[in-house]
Recover the amino acids of this structure.
């Protein structure tokens, strides 16, 4: 099948637009609500991708709303591009963990620095784990089995991070 010519962030936006027209701000909120536990997206990425998707004919602009907000709607071509993207090989994960990077240079840290690093990371992952578990429950309650399955990835990730943090060398 032909290459969709879209990157994963653009594809995520097209996927969200299947729910209906949305402004950039609404897309950010939807991405935060649905995807954030396992897929990060910045406001600048959203606002960079939307005009590119419009240039490709994958989205169309609606009538400006309050404060010049511009809703975007997915087009038939955008739906086809999204369908092609779904069939493409997903590629490899890009692992970029700022805590692991700092741990790799642990000998250059003071013991107090490492302990603070571990404590902060543990707090973050504990809170994120709790939030992801709640989102899984909500998705299941709403009958969204696929959303729940994707969120289970975030649950497993945060559990693994917490287990790893228990095993790293002490400061």
């Amino acid at each position: 099948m032909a290459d969709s010519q879209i990157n994963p962030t653009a594809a995520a936006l097209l996927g969200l637009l299947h729910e209906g027209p949305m402004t950039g701000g609404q897309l950010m909120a939807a991405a935060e609500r649905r995807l954030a536990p396992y897929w990060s997206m910045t406001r600048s990425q959203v606002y960079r991708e939307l005009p590119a998707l419009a240039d490709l004919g994958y989205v169309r602009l609606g009538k400006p709303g309050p404060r010049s907000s511009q809703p975007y709607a997915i087009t038939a071509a955008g739906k086809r591009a999204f369908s092609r993207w779904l069939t493409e090989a997903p590629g490899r994960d890009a692992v970029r963990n700022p805590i692991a990077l700092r741990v790799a240079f642990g000998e250059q840290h003071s013991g107090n620095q490492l302990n603070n690093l571990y404590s902060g990371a543990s707090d973050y992952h504990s809170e994120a784990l709790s939030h992801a578990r709640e989102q899984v429950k909500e998705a299941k309650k709403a009958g969204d089995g696929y959303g729940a399955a994707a969120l289970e990835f975030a649950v497993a990730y945060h559990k693994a991070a917490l287990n790893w943090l228990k095993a790293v060398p002490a400061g």
